[in-house]
Structures are given as C-alpha cells and as structure tokens.
Design brief:
By secondary structure, the protein is α/β, with parallel strands linked by helices. It has ten helices and 17 strands.
C-alpha cells in the first residue's frame, strides 16, 4: 500500500441495531443486514486511530464540489446516499466555498440532478461574508474581486462598480478566482489595501477540481495580496470556525452531534475537527494522497466516496 499504514474495522450489522441514528431521543435504526467494513489509509509516521463512536449523529455537514459533484455532475452513488441520510431523519446542510453561483442557483442545479435539496439547505461563503460585513463593517463601501454573479447572496452589501475608479472602498472582498483575476484587477485591489482598506476573503482554497482537472483558485492570489500589502485577510468561509458554527446553529445541533464530509483535508475536515465536529475525508474531488500525507493533522475517518457515508454511520450505530 505504498508504505501507508492500513487498518480495517468491522462492525456487525445486527437487525435492529445497524442503522442510522435518527435523533438524540430516538435511536430507532434503518435495518442493515450482513457486516460493514471499511479501510482507512493513514499518513506515514502517524498513529492510525478512529474516533470512538458518538452517542448520536443528528447533523451532517457536506461540501458540494468534489464530494457530491464534479463540474456539477453527480458523483456515483451521491444522490442515493444523500436520500438515505434524509430518510434516516438526519439534519443536512450543504456547506460550500463556491463563489460562482448563488444559493438558489446551486439548489436548482442539484435538484435537477436528483439531490433532495432546496436553497434553505445550502450555506455559502458569500452568504456568510454578507453577514460578517453587516456586523463588522456596517455601511462600508466594498470592492469585490470574484468570478461569477453572487449579488443575490451578498444582500445589502454596498459593492461599488468595478468600473468606478473614483470611489475609495473601505473593504476589499476576495471571492473565487477566474478570468477576472487579471493584473489590472489585482493591482487595483493592492492599491486599495495600501490606502487602508480592510481585506476580507471568502476562502483560502488554492485549487478545485473540474472535469478538466485541478484549477487554480483565489487562495494563491490572496497570499500574494497579503504579503505585498502587509496585511492579513479575515476569512469568512471554510476553514473559519464561525462558518461551521453558523451551519450548526441553522441545524440546531451541537458540534459533538455533527459530522463534516469534505474533499479538502485542511479547510473541510481538519478545520471542522478543530471546531469539535467529527471529520470525514473523501478520496474524490481535489483529494490528493500527497496532500493527505502532508496534512497538519489526521482526519477522524477516511472513505473512498460520499456513497460510503451511510455505511460508516450504520457501523457507528451498531457499536453503540
């Protein structure tokens, strides 16, 4: 296995016990015959361990791009797995750093693909950014550097026209990268920061995966702006703790009752674990073995794809 440590855990699927936990007070389960097994590969030199089974799982936080879809096409088994979580009565939130579409647009695309979701199930980095600006910089004039139309999710944030070179913004907001991230736009943002504008970033993602392979994202440009302007960005999306706290608050669940599923070991999984949420890394999307090995910590669980999540939760239930 390429020098990796491999561990296998098996849990009996006894009728009446091998199901998904519905809530704190209701431990009825979906029946699951046979046995459940999974394999986890740990980075070299680290202890391979599993987090003890939780008393209950009430909520599941799910990244979208690379976990449920790639280039908005469903990954194998993802639709069925999400339906199974819904049928088990689990609260679900789709938490994404996607900055190219609004919540309504994302929900429409996913629903057309068969996913049982609505806009209310989706929490985006732009929506959280709007709340942050309203709380910390009320009435601020903001310069937005982003690829895609997210105006609907930004709500009442005062975004100045990109062609307006006379207005000096109070805040520079960096979203997702795309063709708009050219020298002129980046240099203009650099100038605003030199004149005292605050820097707010929706995320630090270095890249994401499409059907054409890995694509460079805003985090690469953000690092340059921070260093050049000698300032640090406030990050509002993943991996900020506030983002996970907002998602949990919407679902009415505590961190110890929730699971986060993502393909980004740092921003999705380890960041969730730092916030007290159980982390599950999937080997789809942007997942790279090298990134996994070099990560700053160890994911609680690793599975091949989101399609395996119901079986993992059934195994937890069987252990209780």
């Amino acid at each position: 296995m390429g020098g990796h440590e491999e561990s296998v855990r098996r849990a009996g699927g006894r009728a009446g016990t091998g199901g998904l936990v519905r809530s704190v007070h209701d431990h009825r389960a979906l029946k699951c015959g046979g046995r459940v097994a999974w394999v986890r590969i740990a980075p070299p030199g680290r202890v391979d361990r599993y987090r003890p089974a939780m008393d209950s799982v009430r909520a599941v936080l799910i990244d979208i791009d690379g976990v449920l879809t790639v280039s908005w096409e469903p990954l194998p088994g993802a639709v069925e797995a999400l339906r199974e979580l819904r049928e088990a009565g689990l609260a679900v939130a789709l938490v994404t750093n996607t900055t190219s579409r609004t919540r309504a647009s994302i929900a429409g695309t996913l629903a057309e693909a068969g996913f049982p979701v609505t806009a209310r199930d989706i929490l985006t980095a732009p929506a959280v950014t709007a709340a942050y600006i309203a709380e910390h910089f009320p009435g601020a004039r903001c310069a937005l550097l982003n690829s895609g139309d997210i105006g609907e999710d930004l709500g009442d944030v005062d975004v100045i026209d990109a062609r307006d070179t006379g207005t000096v913004p109070d805040v520079v907001i960096v979203g997702g990268a795309g063709p708009e991230f050219d020298y002129v736009a980046l240099n203009r943002a650099f100038g605003h920061l030199q004149r005292g504008a605050r820097l707010v970033a929706m995320h630090r993602n270095l890249y994401w995966r499409t059907d054409d392979g890995l694509q460079l994202d805003a985090g690469a440009f953000l690092a340059g702006l921070e260093k050049a302007a000698r300032t640090d960005a406030v990050v509002t999306g993943k991996p900020s703790r506030a983002f996970f706290a907002s998602a949990l608050a919407r679902l009415g669940a505590g961190a110890d009752e929730a699971v986060m599923v993502g393909d980004d070991v740092e921003s999705d999984v380890l960041a969730a674990q730092a916030a007290g949420v159980t982390g599950v890394l999937v080997r789809t999307g942007k997942y790279l073995p090298q990134t996994h090995r070099d990560a700053s910590g160890t994911p609680d669980h690793v599975i091949d794809s989101f399609a395996e999540l119901p079986a993992l939760l059934r195994a937890w239930s069987a252990e209780q």
